[in-house]
Structures are given as structure tokens and as C-alpha cells.
């Protein structure tokens, strides 16, 4: 479809209010407390479209950092086991970047691989994405090297591109068109403005990288690159496409619940077996896993990369494990 | 002698197996670097951006396996090193601290006594921003403070960057990671986050060298270091000792003295 309209700046607020009136939660980047975060908003004035990126990704809307997946209680020798309904509020993500929007495709590949994950899908269906194209990029960004781009529509229901006086609004999906239809007056006919987005040259060729990883499993490169890595989980937790989770139970003698929480292959405990053996016992092996998972195993298994090049990991890393730089090295070597 | 020349010499003579210092990153950043060949020493930098506490690496298995290492050390790194020695995590002969002065000259501090003497000349001062926020928190009512931390900690995603960046969080098995049994809820919900940060703050009371690296590491900007600072300052006020001043410091919270001013134990 991809019909293009014009959304004047002052109509963004009309749009937000129309979405709210329709009973949808609107999550958008804000700069409250001096921090770039996604927060619920009521009006366009609360939205920060100046910041390039939020620290955390938008994946929390479909894959929360902790989610209750079942509950039980015990009484009189019996167990009462209860399913928990996914908490799937109708939500619009407004103002995320194209890389964040593309992250949902990578999540989808995993959560719908062999079984359809009930929780992910319920939330995903209730979610619509209105991304805003980037007119600038920073030096952590590398979306163009992984098949995306500052003006990419992949993953978005509507893509807004800033232009003089407002935004060009590409209605990418039916879902997007339905959102625009909530306030038909706000979305004007396209006056034929040219779309101008950030110029972000490709840093490496991802197909060559994937091919090069084939023979690099034992390469000393991984140890060299990862010596400074602290093995914290910051990179995975801020990543829009990292999906690892842990299942934990919280219970007392009477009742309990099972929770799904974020986890990461960056930590030693992630692969520690009950026997005491750890197949990925060094940080180098864990760093290698991070790179291979995203750039070798993903393409092999799902026919797409597990990285959208947002650079959030690079910005979040306390020791500047610059992913683009490391990938470039791996692709060239 | 400057850091590069000194590092080259140490690596050439085999006095150390690696120099842990900083190198320039691609984005105007500096980051920890492990220089293992003399020829690579020229990549080392040391300037006011180099604030990260490199002592966090000294207890790591990968680093211990290297053999003796030199570390380009800012005062906070030296403090952490002394504290690690006091806690018997690092031996004097394993690490060669290199103190770098403002003019770039390097002083070797081969034994703990040298480090102590060097540090005795450097006043430990908290950053103005930290002092201000601590004072602001102190001035709050209990309820306000509770609300402040509840809001801040609700942002926590339990990535543990704060723990892993901390030179004093070196346990191979951290209580936080235990899930059978769970001592503290693993999940990042209100209770799990609160308990994690309370436990960490308490574990650091009397041991924190106040480098602030935990707070700097936090990807979502929670000033978690202030929890540790507060506990540390209380221990200092109550027991008169500061972590990271001596390689032979008894832990304030687990030692007993007959002249202790508390009476409950008599
Ligand atoms: S790459 Fe950086 S953020 Fe990721 S685990 Fe290592 S130190 Fe932490
Ligand atoms: S790996 Fe890093 S750059 Fe790639 S999608 Fe994740 S956070 Fe973004
Ligand atoms: S990675 Fe690309 S899409 Fe994402 S913020 Fe940077 S330029 Fe925009
Ligand atoms: S670094 Fe920040 S987000 Fe991560 S566990 Fe510590 S306080 Fe929480």
C-alpha cells in the first residue's frame, strides 16, 4: 500500500489525542528527568523527537523485562494451576526510530519459530508502530550495514519523515492506515515533498561478514576483542532484538507464580550446567556467541540478521565494546 | 618516564605480561586496553577521560592467568587495589601499579606501602554533582527518599552492569545469581530491584572506594553509586576508617575491639 500523506507539525497533537480517545496507550520518547526513555504520553508536547535514541529499546512493549506466565496455589493436597492472560493493552509506539521498529521482526522470528508464543503475540497484535525517520545519525548507528536505514519502513505501520512544516506520513500497513483514519483531517494529501533522511554510509557488508564467520570459530580475535568485556548484560538488555529469557518461580508454601525475565548469553551463569560444567566458560566464548548468534545463526535459521544496527549496545556498554568496529574487524580479517 | 615508554620497557624486559591501561575508541571515547606486546604500547592513552576503575579486572580469571600485570592507575584504581589486597584478592607481587601524574610522568609503586604513601598525598573528594545529590537526598524526608529510590529503581533492568563494573564486586558466585534457592527475587520487579540494591549497598558498606563506576556503568542512568557512597560514608562516620587506604585494613563491620564504643556486646 504505502500511501503517502502530509502531517503538519501542529496536527501531531491531534493524532496523539485521537489515539488516546480510541483507548490506546501512546508510548513515545520523552526527555523527563534528563533521560531518553519511552513513556506514556497524553500530548505531542511531551514527546522528544530531538533525541536520536532512547537508552532502552521498544521491545519491552512485547517482551517485558518480567512477565507472569502462570500461577498456582496449593491447598488440601491439591494444586490449582492457572493460566495468566497476557497483559495486552492496545498500544501505539510513536516516535521510535526505524531500527527500533525493525527489531520487532527479529523478535518475531524467535517467538514464532516453532511454537507461537502466546504472550508475545497477544502484545504484538495490540501494538501499532509509528516510527520517525532519522535526519541525522550518530557514530554508533550502523543500520545501513545490516539491511535497514534511517528512512526504512520495515517494521513500521506508519513512517513519519520530518519535512518542512511537518512530516511525510507513509501509511505502510493496513494497521497504519486505520490509525490515520482515526483523525482524517490531520493527514493531508501529499504535496509532493521530497524525503530527505540521514546519510549513513555502509560500514561493512553483512553477507561478507556472515560468510567470514564460517571459519572463524577458533579465531584469537574473540579473545582479543573481549578481554575488556565485563560480562554484564547491558548490551543485551538494551538491544531491540535480544530475546534470551529465563524462567523463574517465586513461591511460598501456599502459592506461587512462574515468571519470564530477560536473560543474556553474556554472563557465565547463562550456560552453567547443573553438573558444574560450563560449555562457554570464558568471556571470549560468550562474546563470540553474541556475534555468532546475531550474524551467523540467525541468518542460518531464520533467513535474517539478529541485529538492526541501532548501536544501543555500543552506547550502553560501560567499556565501549563498539559493535560496529568489532564487526568490521571480523568482516575484513 | 612516560607511560608508553615505561610500558614498552616493562613488556620488553618481561617484568610484566600485560599493561592494563586505556586506549582511544572510535567515537571520542577511551576504554580499557590490555597491551601484551611492547610494539602495541604506543596505543596507550591516559588523560582526564580515563576515570574507569581498572582494578575491576585484577580479580578476573582471564587476567590472573596472564601473570604479573602493570596497571595504569588513577587514584581510585589504587584505592581499589589496596582494598583488594586487604581482602586478600590480589597479592602484592601480582600487580605493578603505575601512577601517572598530570604531566604524564609515571611512578612505579611496586609495593603496597608505596601505594599507601602515594595515596596519602591525594585527598579523596567526591564529585560536586554527587555531593550535591547526596546532600539533597539527606535533606529529604524518609517518605520523599523512599519515593525517589522507588522511582529510580523502577528503571532498573537488572543487567548487573553496576555490579560487574565494580572492583569490589568480585564474588565468583553472587547471591543475586542464585536461583536455587533464590535469596533475592531474580526478576526485575519492584521487590527484586529493591532487594538487589539493598544487598549490594550493604555488601559494600565499609568496602566501597567511592569511584562511582557502578553508577557510570548503568545504561539507564540510575545513580546507584549513591547508595554505596551513603553506606560507605556512614561506616566512615561511625568507625573512622575508609576503604582503600591500607592493604591491611580490618573490615569495620566484622571486627571486634574491646574498646568498642558500642555496649551491646559486653
Ligand atoms: S559488551 Fe559491554 S555491555 Fe556487553 S557484556 Fe560486555 S561489558 Fe557489558
Ligand atoms: S546488537 Fe546492538 S546494534 Fe545490533 S540490534 Fe542489538 S543493540 Fe542494536
Ligand atoms: S541506526 Fe539508523 S535508524 Fe537507528 S537511529 Fe541510527 S540512523 Fe536512525
Ligand atoms: S546497571 Fe543500572 S539497570 Fe543495570 S542492574 Fe545496575 S542499576 Fe539496574
Automatic annotation (TrEMBL), chain A:
What are this entry's molecular-function GO terms? Answer: iron-sulfur cluster binding; metal ion binding
Sequence ranges assigned to domain 4Fe-4S ferredoxin-type in this UniProt record: 218-250, 297-326
* Entry annotated with the keyword Metal-binding: yes
Q: Which Pfam families match?
A: Fer4_22
Q: Does the keyword Cell wall biogenesis/degradation apply?
A: no
Domain of life per record: Bacteria
Q: Which UniProt keywords apply?
A: Iron, Iron-sulfur, Metal-binding
Q: What is this protein called?
A: Heterodisulfide reductase subunit A
Q: What is the lineage of its organism?
A: Bacteria, Pseudomonadati, Acidobacteriota, Holophagae, Holophagales
UniProtKB/TrEMBL annotation, chain B:
Residue ranges the record marks as coiled coil: none
Work out whether the entry's keyword set contains Nucleotide-binding: no
Q: Which InterPro entries match?
A: 4Fe4S_Fe-S-bd, 4Fe4S_Fe_S_CS
UniProt GO molecular function: iron-sulfur cluster binding; metal ion binding
Q: Which UniProt keywords apply?
A: Iron, Iron-sulfur, Metal-binding
Say if the entry is tagged with keyword Lyase: no
The chain positions of domain 4Fe-4S ferredoxin-type read 199-229
Protein name, UniProt field? Fe-S oxidoreductase
Species this chain originates from: Mesoterricola sediminis
Amino acid at each position: 500500500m504505502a500511501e503517502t500523506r502530509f502531517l503538519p507539525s501542529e496536527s501531531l497533537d491531534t493524532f496523539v489525542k485521537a489515539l488516546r480517545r480510541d483507548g490506546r496507550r501512546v508510548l513515545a520518547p520523552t526527555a523527563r528527568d534528563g533521560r531518553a526513555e519511552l513513556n506514556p504520553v497524553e500530548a505531542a508536547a511531551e514527546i522528544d523527537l530531538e533525541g536520536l535514541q532512547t537508552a532502552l529499546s521498544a521491545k519491552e512493549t512485547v517482551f517485558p523485562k518480567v512477565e507472569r506466565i502462570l500461577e498456582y496455589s496449593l491447598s488440601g493436597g491439591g494444586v490449582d494451576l492457572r493460566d495468566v492472560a497476557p497483559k495486552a493493552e492496545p498500544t501505539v509506539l510513536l516516535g521510535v526510530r526505524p531500527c527500533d521498529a525493525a527489531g520487532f521482526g527479529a523478535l518475531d522470528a524467535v517467538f514464532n519459530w516453532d511454537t507461537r508464543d502466546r504472550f508475545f503475540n497477544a502484545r504484538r497484535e495490540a501494538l501499532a508502530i509509528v516510527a520517525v525517520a532519522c535526519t541525522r545519525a550518530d557514530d554508533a548507528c550502523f543500520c545501513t550495514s545490516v539491511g535497514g536505514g534511517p528512512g526504512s519502513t520495515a517494521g513500521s505501520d506508519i513512517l513519519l519523515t520530518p519535512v518542512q512544516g511537518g512530516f511525510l506520513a507513509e501509511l505502510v500497513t493496513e494497521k497504519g492506515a486505520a490509525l490515520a483514519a482515526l483523525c482524517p483531517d490531520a493527514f493531508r494529501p501529499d504535496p509532493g515533498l521530497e524525503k530527505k533522511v540521514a546519510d549513513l554510509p555502509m560500514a561493512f557488508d553483512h553477507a561478507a561478514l556472515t560468510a567470514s564467520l564460517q571459519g572463524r570459530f577458533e579465531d584469537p580475535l574473540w579473545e582479543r576483542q573481549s578481554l575488556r568485556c565485563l560480562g554484564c548484560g547491558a548490551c543485551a538488555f538494551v538491544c531491540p532484538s535480544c530475546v534470551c529469557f529465563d524462567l523463574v518461580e517465586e513461591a511460598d508454601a501456599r502459592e506461587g507464580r512462574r515468571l519470564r525475565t530477560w536473560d543474556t548469553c553474556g554472563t557465565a551463569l547463562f550456560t552453567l550446567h547443573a553438573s558444574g560444567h560450563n560449555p562457554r566458560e570464558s568471556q571470549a566464548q560468550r562474546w563470540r556467541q553474541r556475534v555468532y548468534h546475531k550474524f551467523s545463526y540467525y541468518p542460518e535459521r531464520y533467513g535474517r540478521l539478529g541485529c538492526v544496527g541501532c548501536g544501543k549496545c555500543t552506547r550502553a556498554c560501560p567499556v565501549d565494546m563498539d559493535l560496529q568496529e568489532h564487526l568490521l574487524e571480523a568482516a575484513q580479517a | 618516564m612516560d607511560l608508553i615508554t615505561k610500558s614498552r620497557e616493562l613488556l620488553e624486559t618481561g617484568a610484566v605480561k600485560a599493561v592494563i591501561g586505556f586506549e582511544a575508541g572510535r567515537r571520542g571515547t577511551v576504554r580499557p586496553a590490555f597491551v601484551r606486546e611492547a610494539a602495541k604500547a604506543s596505543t596507550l592513552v591516559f588523560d582526564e577521560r580515563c576515570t574507569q576503575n581498572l582494578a575491576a579486572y585484577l580479580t578476573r580469571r582471564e587476567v590472573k592467568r596472564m601473570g604479573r600485570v602493570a596497571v595504569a592507575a588513577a587514584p581510585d584504581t589504587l584505592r581499589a587495589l589496596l582494598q583488594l589486597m586487604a581482602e586478600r584478592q590480589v597479592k602484592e607481587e601480582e600487580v605493578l601499579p603505575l601512577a601517572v601524574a598530570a604531566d604524564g610522568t609515571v611512578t612505579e609503586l611496586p609495593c603496597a606501602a608505596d601505594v599507601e604513601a602515594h595515596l596519602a598525598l591525594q585527598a579523596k573528594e567526591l564529585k560536586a554533582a554527587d555531593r550535591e545529590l547526596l546532600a539533597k537526598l539527606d535533606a529529604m524526608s524518609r517518605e520523599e527518599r523512599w519515593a525517589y529510590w522507588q522511582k529510580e529503581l523502577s528503571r532498573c533492568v537488572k543487567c548487573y552492569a553496576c555490579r560487574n563494573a565494580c572492583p569490589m564486586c568480585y564474588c565468583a558466585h553472587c547471591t543475586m545469581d542464585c536461583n536455587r534457592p533464590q535469596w533475592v527475587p531474580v526478576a526485575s520487579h519492584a521487590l527484586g530491584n529493591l532487594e538487589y540494591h539493598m544487598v549490594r549497598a550493604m555488601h559494600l558498606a565499609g568496602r566501597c572506594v567511592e569511584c562511582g563506576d557502578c553508577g557510570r556503568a548503568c545504561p539507564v542512568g540510575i545513580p546507584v553509586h549513591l547508595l554505596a557512597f551513603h553506606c560507605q560514608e556512614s561506616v566512615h562516620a561511625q568507625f573512622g576508617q575508609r576503604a582503600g587506604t591500607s592493604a591491611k585494613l580490618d573490615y569495620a563491620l566484622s571486627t571486634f575491639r574491646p574498646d568498642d564504643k558500642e555496649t551491646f556486646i559486653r
